[in-house]
Structure formats: C-alpha cells, structure tokens
Amino acid sequence: MDAQQPHWVGKHYSFYSNKECEFYPCHQLPEGQEFNCLFCYCPLYMLGRACGGNFKYLENGIKDCSGCTLPHRRENYGYISEKFAAITQAMAEQEKSGTAPDHKE
C-alpha cells in the first residue's frame, strides 16, 4: 500500500456491493465503475445543503438525491467518514434547539 494513501484504501470495511439487492443499482454510475452499497441510506442527507452531493430540493421541500452518486463511489468512503463530526454536531444542535425528531418506540 502506498504510504500516501488513506488507511482505509483497499480495506473490505470501506466497500460493499450488494448485487443481489432488488434495487441494485439504485443510481447509475459510469460504465466500469464499482458501486458501493455501504452507505445505502446516505448519512449526509441530514446535513442539507452542506452534504457536498449532487441534489436538488423539490417544490414540497424534500431533498431529492436521485442524481447523486457520492455515497456510492468507492473513493468517497473517507469523505463520508470525515463528515461524521459534522453530523454529530448537527444532531446535538437539533437536540438543544428542540427541533430534533422525537424517537418513539
């Protein structure tokens, strides 16, 4: 492994492709590119405009990520894992402000 590469490059935990899934592939990637299913439900969704992906907001205010392949490209594992601090911060701010969704079991 190249000393310049991140520690996760080439590791099995950073990539998973479920070709048996009924929805595979849920987004189209360029021919020959591997499809990573590890972040099937993108953890960056809750960051809104700060997610870094290719999305749009629909008229009803819902974030539409159907044109985004950011979480499905092998090389973006590091980008997503680095964003967990921002996700944690956003969740804490929601809790403080009282805007976090209620969790009911």
Task: Describe it.
It is a single chain. The chain is mostly helical and 105 residues long. Helices cover 19% and strands 4% of the residues. It has 2 helices and 2 strands. The chain has helices spanning 77-82, 84-97, and strands at residues 56-57, 63-64. Strands 1-2 form a two-stranded antiparallel ribbon. A hairpin with a 5-residue loop joins strand 1 (56-57) and strand 2 (63-64). The longest helix is centred in the last third of the chain and has 14 residues, at 84-97. It is globular and about 45 Å long. It starts with 55 loop residues before the first strand and ends in an 8-residue tail after the last helix.
The secondary-structure class comes to mainly alpha
Helix percentage: 10-25%
Shape: globular
* Unreliable segments of 5+ consecutive residues: none
Helical run tally: 2
- Give the topology string: H per helix, E per strand: EEHH
The largest pleated sheet is described as: 2 strands, antiparallel
Q: Which radius of gyration do the C-alpha atoms yield?
A: 16 Å
Percentage of β-strand residues: under 5%
Termini separation (Å)?
Answer: 45 Å
How many strand elements?
Answer: 2
Strand arrangement in the largest pleated sheet: 1-2
Mean pLDDT: 88
